[in-house]
């Protein structure tokens, strides 16, 4: 599982690509190459979750969101 998780943060050439951000990242920032959203804790309200996870699907490539509660 560790290798699979690590691989999900790498590009096609095996380069590790990670961005750490606060909720402010989703406000007006357009990052088209973002394909995995990982939440450490649930957002303060449920209306924020679709907004924050929507950042991962801006370039039409498959994306996913992970929520650790």
From TrEMBL:
One of its GO terms (cellular component) is chromosome. GO terms for biological process: double-strand break repair via homologous recombination. Its EC number is 5.6.2.4. Residues 3-58 form the Helicase C-terminal domain. SUPFAM superfamilies: P-loop containing nucleoside triphosphate hydrolases (SSF52540). Gene3D superfamilies: P-loop containing nucleotide triphosphate hydrolases. Keywords: DNA-binding, Isomerase, Nucleus. Belongs to the helicase family. RecQ subfamily. It comes from Amphimedon queenslandica. GO terms for molecular function: 3'-5' DNA helicase activity; DNA binding; four-way junction helicase activity. InterPro entries: Helicase_C-like (IPR001650), P-loop_NTPase (IPR027417). It catalyses: Couples ATP hydrolysis with the unwinding of duplex DNA by translocating in the 3'-5' direction. This is DNA 3'-5' helicase. It comes from the Eukaryota. It is an enzyme of class 5 (isomerase).
